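QUALITY CONTROL LOG
STEP: pairwise intake check
CHECKER ROLE: data steward
CRITERIA: each record must contain a sequence immediately followed by its structure tokens, with no blank fields

ENTRY 1 OF 2
RESULT FIELD BELOW
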Amino acid sequence: MKGWLAVYIVLVACVAASDWIDYEDSGTATMTHYDLPEDYIASCGCVGGSTHYPTAALSQMAFGSSTAYGPACGRCFNLTLLNTYTAYPPFFPDETKSVVVKVTDKCPLSQDGWCSGTKDKTNSGGQRLNFDLAYPSDAISDDFFPSNASLYGFTDFGVWNITYEVVTCKDNWAGYDDTSALGAVDYLGPESACCPVEPTGYLDDSCPSYSDHNGIAYVLYIPVIACV
């Protein structure tokens, strides 16, 4: 009986979290940043050359897959800083900073934190989407994130409120005209890598959900207590 109950709990957890976020073409989100080594092959399987230009990971339930690639792979977004979330008092920069990124990676779904947003639950910043910017990076200026060290005592706020807008990669993403930064790596094969040059979100030019296609759970790790 105990074994059956354990299996039942896992199944309920997976079904309850099965809906991907159908986000608008523009809106608000949170932004964090993470270390992505140069030439690293991330979840989408985009070529290493893409890391020489601005890239980001998107929170899992907006990314559209729990494993490998998802519909967000290759999409370009214009991200604009608004204000900090965790600092007190909130920091509102004097200048507007924006960056156009290509999504090449996934920020895994967690119970809490910045990539925990789902269709029915916001993250710690009250948003469903989080963009995890690959930064520091040679592709982005060292002073991209504004700061006020004299007031706060540090320069990296860690989390920002932002606006996002889906944009075409052509004419917007810095790596679009560099063929060495486009496409997916060959050695993984089309079944394990998907990184369109200019996806629009339609099935004929965008990645499917790898986890949906292969019957992989939407949520890989959920504490049993979450189902009680």
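ENTRY 2 OF 2
RESULT FIELD BELOW
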Amino acid sequence: MLNKSLLVNNISNIEIARLNAEEVIEIFSGRKFRRMHDIDINTYNFSHILVDPPRSGLDLDVINLVNNFENLIYVSCNPDTYIRDIKLLNNFKVEKLALFDQFANTEHLEIVSILKKINQ
């Protein structure tokens, strides 16, 4: 579906890679993956990272990785772990926040926030 969308919209400046959080951390640490053989991560100038963790929130390794970026887009389905993680990301400031009630008549909601690193 993503490949088709890129084609239909004539987008050619995006590389697609499906990786879990541990693999992303390993890639930024220099590990090579066969499915990433044609992508040189060092040629990119990343300023943003998007995280969409499970209900348990971010683990400390991901929080350490996130701290290497200037901007963070955080999607969460659990307000409790979102608040916990935001406190741990104390070198970021929440710039924008939105709540989405995607599951009507339930207690579940999605939080999407945009955070920017605080210049220290």
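INTAKE CHECK: passed for both entries
DESCRIPTIVE NOTE, ENTRY 2: The mean pLDDT is 90.
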